[in-house]
């Protein structure tokens, strides 16, 4: 992994707009000083340069385009993917007295008229205009008005929020973002600022190409969030109830006025997710934790109430899907607990990153069991690199020795920084037993080979059962393979998938996509016992006390 260059050009000098920028920052936004890179970014945009900003969630990206939008004459166009984010932003700006509007499916006819007139003829105050990407790709009318605005010298800048959506390699590719390149082609002399919280080196290169901003100034702030303590907890041990553990953790580590989020797995098309959320919230309440749930189908009033109570720390825990938290800016979230696996390192970084935006120690806990993987993989396999991305976070979960933070640095192509004991592996490590599983792998490969020769296939669970049945039937109680517990066999199968001895395959039915385990590219080596396989089995439960 190549390290991404960090702001190669120096934009910290003095500029004619310095004092106006400071006045606007303080008098309009009520912000007492700029954070890292903000002033430099503003300087580059004000100088007419194209800019790429990579800044952690909560770092203050919005100011980087909103402030130049105010300083420059004319209309700033902002493309943003989510209606709810746009609404929040427009509301916030309006409250500050800035003429901000949005052109989306929810815009009234009256506002639309106002906006079009402003674009067309420069009538009426319009400083910042938010649109969703579909407007650019699908509305000829809008584009022709925008052209007029530009022609009249009234287009001040173009901002692309959540710019990683441009890239197929990113974690949230949106087809409509692909067409945003048209903006630079039509308005080559207007500065474009693309912003995102997360972009690997590859995604950066890709989106610069798609947006036609090859010469942009890059500002890469570190992905490191030094105040976050990362840990992975095992939820595979038989008889262990995760809810009990989560409740114990919250009671043990947090005072009553400290709050956080518990994320549950969401399968988009699955209605049951709402039931699951309410059930988990109830189970936490039964254990004396003040908890409630939050989901998209709740009516606006109920949702608002839950959110408000939580924001004021009257409610300790919100149970939600990973969609909860997007655009929500609570600075003192003390813990983010994932009840099950995220789909990639990038999404996990973003979701867990909702903790500790105020810079105080906070914890990010992920509950992992191999059995959760097929459920996730059957959802992501059709995405570009979906499986690769999923397997990356599985590696993160299964690594018992390596600094958790280092996985983020590596993933985002950044040089290693000190963890300062702020992850489970660095703080207290894990007691593990290393098992030579070469023989076990051989049995699994031969089992699958036999099955596939008979046109049979197996889910992970079926394979686990067959493996154990075979060991039992052989009557051998002292073979090396007889001592693996069910979860350990699951863990081994996952390891073999990561090592490409096995692979996952998927089949659609009318109701679901089923995941199967089949032989992978390196199966022959395993069958011949030539593939050395080392399984790390956790003996000691990882400590429950973290850095906070
Ligand atoms: P991002 O888009 O990077 O996630 P936002 O632009 O929403 O972050 O900013 C996060 C929060 O930080 C907002 O409440 C914003 O007002 C605040 N903020 C931005 N810049 C500064 C600053 N220089 N000083 C203090 N607070 C700031």
Automatic annotation (TrEMBL):
Signal peptide location: none
Residues covered by the Helicase C-terminal domain: 242-398
Superkingdom as given in the UniProt entry: Eukaryota
GO terms (BP aspect): DNA replication; double-strand break repair via homologous recombination
Subcellular localization(s) per the UniProt record: Nucleus
Cofactor annotation: Mn(2+); Mg(2+)
Major localization listed first in the record, in broad terms: nucleus
EC number(s) given by UniProt: 5.6.2.4
Class in the EC hierarchy, top level: isomerase
Catalytic activity: ATP + H2O = ADP + phosphate + H(+); Couples ATP hydrolysis with the unwinding of duplex DNA by translocating in the 3'-5' direction
Cellular component per GO, a single term: chromosome
Domain called Helicase ATP-binding: residue spans: 42-217
GO molecular function list: 3'-5' DNA helicase activity; ATP binding; DNA binding; four-way junction helicase activity; hydrolase activity; metal ion binding
UniProt keyword annotations, A-Z: ATP-binding, Coiled coil, DNA-binding, Helicase, Hydrolase, Isomerase, Metal-binding, Nucleotide-binding, Nucleus
Similarity annotation: Belongs to the helicase family. RecQ subfamily.
Protein name, per record: ATP-dependent DNA helicase
Species, as recorded: Ananas comosus
Source organism phylogeny: Eukaryota, Viridiplantae, Streptophyta, Embryophyta, Tracheophyta
Record gene name: LOC109707216
First-to-last residue of the parent protein present: 55 to 602 of 722
């Amino acid at each position: 992994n190549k390290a991404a260059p960090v702001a190669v050009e120096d934009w910290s000098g003095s500029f004619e707009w310095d004092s106006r920028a400071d006045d606007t920052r303080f008098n309009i936004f009520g912000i007492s000083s700029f954070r890292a890179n903000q002033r430099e970014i503003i300087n580059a945009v004000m100088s007419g340069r194209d800019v790429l900003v990579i800044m952690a969630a909560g770092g203050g990206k919005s100011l980087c385009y909103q402030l130049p939008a105010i300083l420059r004459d004319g209309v700033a166009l902002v493309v943003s993917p989510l209606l709810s984010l746009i609404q929040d932003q427009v509301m916030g700006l309006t409250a500050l007295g800035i003429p901000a509007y949005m052109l989306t499916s929810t815009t009234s006819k009256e506002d639309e008229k106002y906006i079009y007139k402003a674009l067309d003829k420069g009538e009426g105050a319009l400083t910042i205009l938010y649109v969703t990407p579909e407007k650019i790709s699908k509305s000829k009318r809008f584009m022709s008005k925008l052209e007029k605005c530009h022609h009249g010298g009234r287009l001040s800048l173009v901002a692309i929020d959540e710019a990683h959506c441009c890239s197929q390699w990113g974690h949230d590719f949106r087809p409509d973002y692909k067409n945003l390149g048209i903006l630079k082609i039509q308005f080559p002399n207007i500065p474009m600022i693309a912003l995102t919280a997360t972009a690997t080196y590859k995604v950066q290169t890709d989106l610069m190409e798609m947006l036609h901003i090859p010469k942009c100034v890059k500002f890469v702030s570190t992905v490191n969030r030094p105040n976050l303590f990362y840990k992975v907890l095992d939820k595979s041990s038989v008889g262990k109830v995760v809810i009990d553990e989560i409740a114990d953790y919250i009671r043990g580590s947090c005072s009553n006025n400290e709050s956080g989020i518990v994320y549950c797995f969401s399968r988009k098309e699955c209605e049951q997710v709402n039931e699951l959320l309410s059930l988990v919230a109830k189970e936490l309440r039964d254990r004396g934790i003040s908890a409630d749930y939050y989901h998209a189908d709740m009516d606006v009033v109920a949702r608002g109430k839950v959110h408000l109570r939580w924001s004021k720390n009257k409610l300790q825990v919100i149970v939600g899907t990973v969609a909860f938290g997007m655009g929500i800016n609570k600075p003192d979230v003390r813990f983010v607990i994932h009840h099950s696996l995220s789909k990639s390192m990038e999404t996990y970084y973003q979701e867990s990153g909702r903790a500790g935006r105020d810079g105080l120690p906070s914890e990010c806990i992920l509950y992992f069991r191999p059995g959760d993987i097929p459920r996730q993989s059957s959802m992501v396999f059709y995405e570009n690199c979906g499986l690769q991305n999923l397997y990356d976070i599985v590696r993160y979960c299964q690594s018992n020795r390596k600094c958790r933070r280092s996985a983020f640095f590596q993933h985002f192509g950044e040089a290693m920084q000190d963890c300062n004991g702020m992850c489970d592996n660095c703080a207290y490590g894990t007691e593990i037993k290393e098992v030579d599983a070469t023989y076990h792998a051989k049995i699994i490969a031969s089992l699958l080979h036999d099955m596939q020769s008979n046109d049979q296939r197996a889910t992970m669970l079926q394979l686990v059962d067959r493996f154990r049945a075979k060991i039992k039937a052989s009557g051998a109680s002292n073979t090396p393979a007889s001592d693996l517990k069910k979860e350990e066999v699951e863990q081994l199968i996952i390891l073999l998938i990561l090592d490409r001895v096995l692979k996952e395959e998927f089949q659609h039915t009318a109701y679901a996509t089923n995941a199967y385990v089949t032989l992978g590219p390196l199966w022959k080596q395993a069958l011949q016992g030539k593939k050395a396989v080392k399984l790390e089995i956790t003996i000691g439960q990882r400590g429950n006390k973290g850095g906070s």
